[in-house]
Amino acid sequence: MKTIHLANVACGFHASDFSIKNETVRFAKANNVLVGAHPSLPDRQGFGRREMAMCSFRMFCKYYALTDQQGELASCFIYQVGALTGFLVAHGMSLNQIKPHGATYGMTARDPSLARAAVGAAKTFGVAFMGLAGSCHQVEARKLGVPFIAVRVCLSRNGHLTKRCGAQKARPRPAVGGER
């Protein structure tokens, strides 16, 4: 962490646990690194890289005009991000952004309704959403009034993540306590 200014921290469903999250936040603070959440689908064995349909769940659907599947994805993200945010608060830090991990990244980049659910989680926490430039991520962030940090990656013709092509330098909001 001594060479970065921004970290996306695994939130537990694909990797990490309470001890690792706590230590990672402590280390980020010691190195003056902004922390973002990296939530995923509940897929530990597949490291969050396997797509899955979410079951029906109605929480948050009315507020963000979401279907049952979208509501469960929003709840899945809010649950994970909330856990990380607790550790940030305990260390006197704040959340900087949310960036979906693995299969969720590709699914939400291609599907406007799922993107709306993921971006809605960022709106819930009052932070930026980091996602694929020119995709549903950016469109839904604009619609919901959520700050957007663009990332560039390579996608196959059917919209699946294939490999990284490079990233635009992130322009995160200033950390509490001043400019970086």
Which runs of at least 5 residues are low in confidence (pLDDT < 50)? 55-60, 166-171, 174-180
Q: Order of SSEs, N→C?
A: EHEHHEHHEHEEE
What's the story with the biggest beta sheet? Answer: 5 strands, parallel
Counted beta strands: 7
Put simply, the count of helices is 6
First-to-last CA distance: 15 Å
Radius of gyration of CA atoms, rounded to a whole number: 15 Å
Based on helices, strands and strand pairing, what is the structural class? alpha/beta
- On the 0 to 100 scale, the average pLDDT is 79
Strand order of the largest sheet: 1-2-3-4-5
How helix-rich are the residues, as a percent range? 40-55%
Coarse shape = globular
Could you characterize the architecture of this molecule?
- By secondary structure, the chain is of the alpha/beta class.
- Helix content is 40%, strand content 17%.
- It is built from 6 helices and 7 strands, in the order E-H-E-H-H-E-H-H-E-H-E-E-E.
- Strand 4, helix 6 (136-144) and strand 5 form a beta-alpha-beta unit.
- The two termini are 15 Å apart.
Characteristics of this structure?
180 residues, alpha/beta, two-stranded antiparallel sheet
How would you concisely characterize the structure shown here?
This protein is of the alpha/beta class and 180 residues long.
What is the topology?
Elements (H helix, E strand, L loop, with lengths): L5 E5 L7 H13 L3 E5 L22 H4 L3 H23 L4 E4 L3 H9 L1 H14 L2 E5 L3 H9 L3 E4 L1 E3 L5 E4 L16
Parallel strand pairs: 1-2, 2-3, 3-4, 4-5
Antiparallel strand pairs: 6-7
